[in-house]
Structures are given as C-alpha cells and as structure tokens.
Amino acid sequence: MLKIDQLELGPIQTNCYIISNDQRECLIFDPGEESAKIEAVVKKKNFKPIAILLTHAHFDHIGAVDDIRDRYSIPVYLHDLEKEWLSRPNLNGSGKYPAVPDYRIKDADILLTNEKKLQISSFEIDVFHTPGHSPGSVSFSFGDEGFAIVGDTIFHGSIGRTDLIDGSEKKLLKSIQDSLLTLPKQMILYPGHGPETTPEQEMNSNPFLTGL
Known about the structure:
Elements: E1 3-9, E2 14-20, E3 25-29, H1 35-44, E4 48-53, H2 65-72, E5 76-79, H3 89-92, E6 110-112, E7 116-120, E8 123-129, E9 138-142, E10 147-151, E11 154-155, E12 158-159, H4 169-180, E13 188-191, H5 199-205
Parallel strand pairs: 3-4, 4-5, 5-6, 10-13
Antiparallel strand pairs: 1-2, 2-3, 7-8, 8-9, 9-10, 11-12
C-alpha cells in the first residue's frame, strides 16, 4: 500500500506530494519551492527518492526541481509540450510577475508524449494528458490505490485558471469530463492547491461543471 505525504510549499502554497512504497522508495510530485522542507521529510522517513514527476511547468510547481534532482540524482518527468517551459520565464509564468524571480530550470530528463502506463520501480501509474490549464498538463492516476495527482486541472469546488499562455477553458472542461470525471466516483483527487476531492463530489457541487 502506498503512502502519501503532502507539503504546501512557496508563497502560493502549492501542494507537493511524496508518494512512497513499502521499500521506502518515493516519487516527488511538483516540488514547487522550499527544497529543504522536502529534504527534511525524506530524511526523517528514510525515503529513497527515485523520480520527480511534474503535472505541468508553471513556476509555482517547479521551483525546487533542480535542487531535488541534483541532491538525489534522479530524473524529472514532464510532458513534451512543455519541454521549453522549464527554462523560459515567459512560458512558465515567472516572467509575468515582478515580485517573482525568473525561474530557469534545467531540461526534463524524460518527456511524456502520449497517455500511457508508467512503471517506475514498483509504482504503476496511468498518465492522462489533461490540457487546458496549460498545454502539457497531465494527471497521474494510481488506480489500484484509489487516488490521482491532478495538478491544477480541477480543485475542490473549482477548476484551473485558463488565462495563462496556451490556456483553454474548452480544453480544460473536456479534460475534466473525459479523464477525471470518468474515474471511480470515490477516487481521491489530489490537486495542485487546496484540499482533496473526488469525482462524485465535483459532479454534485462544482459550479463550473454544471451540465457536463
């Protein structure tokens, strides 16, 4: 059975998830900032990080990528459509805000291209391309474990913003309808910000999804 540690990192309180197995190997999702906090959890729990997976490449999800990658010598996974975003502030959004430093992260090590099943050590992950918030947004489903990491595609009672580069409300709603609302009703969805939710809860109460 997998275990989940959740950290809220950086000024926007981005959710970083550390998913660990019985062998204490772990995957780190969206290390947005404050690498020391991530490293503290890894050390305290005697985890062995084996990969970083990014739901997308906006600045608040990538700030600690290089620190964590270099610290543990592990690969970074990102969708191919955002392969240039890590190093370009005008794309990752950091260049949009004067109060935010320009984020320039090294290239991803492994680019995701199609929806597929990933096998990373004992971790079995279904990857869904869920564009709309950004063109290369992906969701990572651990179906046998009953949860998914969904980034900024859907939130508790809301949906991801679509006013950033290459955002599209039409694509976002289609992604939610086709990839997330078709998951088991009680599957736990862990978003990029805020509390967890389920497909059933969002179908019943999310005002943005009325009529889907």
